[in-house]
Amino acid sequence: MQEGGDVVRFQNVGMRYEMGHEVLHDVSLRLEAGSFHLLTGESGAGKSSLLRLMFLGRRPSRGLITLFGHDIATTPRRALPALRRRIGVIFQDFRLVDHLSAMENVALPLRVAGASEQQIKDHVPELLRWVGLEDHIHSRPSVLSGGQKQRVAIARAVIARPQLLLADEPTGNVDDKIAARLMHLLDELNKIGTTIIVATHNQALVSAFSYPRLHLENGELIAIPAIDRQGPRTQRQAPDENISPAREAAASSGSMGGAT
């Protein structure tokens, strides 16, 4: 895990699709290692576009992007997959593989990283228990609720212990109770060092959690500092019993050779 420094840095970044107008204008930001930010803005403000740039799903039209100290414009194409493996992504539409069980979906990043079957058996069920899905380890996505699918997607995104976790509207398909629980899960990951950015338009969550915000409005970024009040770190003195092993589960998944 990277100690200190900037995990992500944007300098005067602009982005447009094809020949259309710019969806992001002169965006400059720094995400320090171990930070947690909310990314807010109305639908169409550019939140998903900003996340695509961060996980190397798109190239900027202009400006400089640095990930883990690497200038993306000058990094050889062959080196990009290794950078992507340091990033976990929770997609708004889950992107689970329908014919695979929850366990098999979560195991996919480990298989890509070359983990052994024993490592998968040791760590994937543990992580699924952490997100409260111990009774659905062998269930396929078609029989899972929206909240359960989202938790599978979270487990898959964090199983290889990413240094940077990007979540695109992770609470958009669940009720407020499940949304708060998912945010607490992400908070646990942040406590063990993962840098996290969560895109959301859920104002209840923005009000409930005191993280600093990156707010997009008409493609322009505004930084909003954390609210000076107690946040989830002080409220969670008695965590949900189904998710209390969070640190141990995530830390053990990160100890596997070839899975970082």
Describe this structure in words.
With 260 residues, the protein is of the alpha/beta class. The chain has one domain (34-58, 83-254): 3-Layer(aba) Sandwich (Rossmann fold). It has nine helices and ten strands. Helix 6 (176-191) links the parallel strand 7 (164-168) and strand 8. Residues 231-260 have low confidence and may be disordered.
The amount of beta strand, in percent, is: 15-25%
Largest sheet: 6 strands, mixed
What's the number of helices? 9
Give the strand order, joined by hyphens, for the main sheet. Answer: 6-7-8-3-9-10
Shape: globular
* Total beta strand runs: 10
Secondary structure: helix percent? 25-40%
| Multimer state | single chain
Which runs of at least 5 residues are low in confidence (pLDDT < 50)?
231-260
CATH superfamily: P-loop containing nucleotide triphosphate hydrolases
Would you tell me which CATH topology applies? Rossmann fold
- What order do the helices and strands follow? EEEHEEHEHHHEHEHEEHH
Report the CATH architecture.
3-Layer(aba) Sandwich
Output the structural class. Answer: alpha/beta
Q: In the residues, how many domains can be counted? A: 1
Give the overall pLDDT as a whole number.
Answer: 85
What is the radius of gyration? Answer: 18 Å
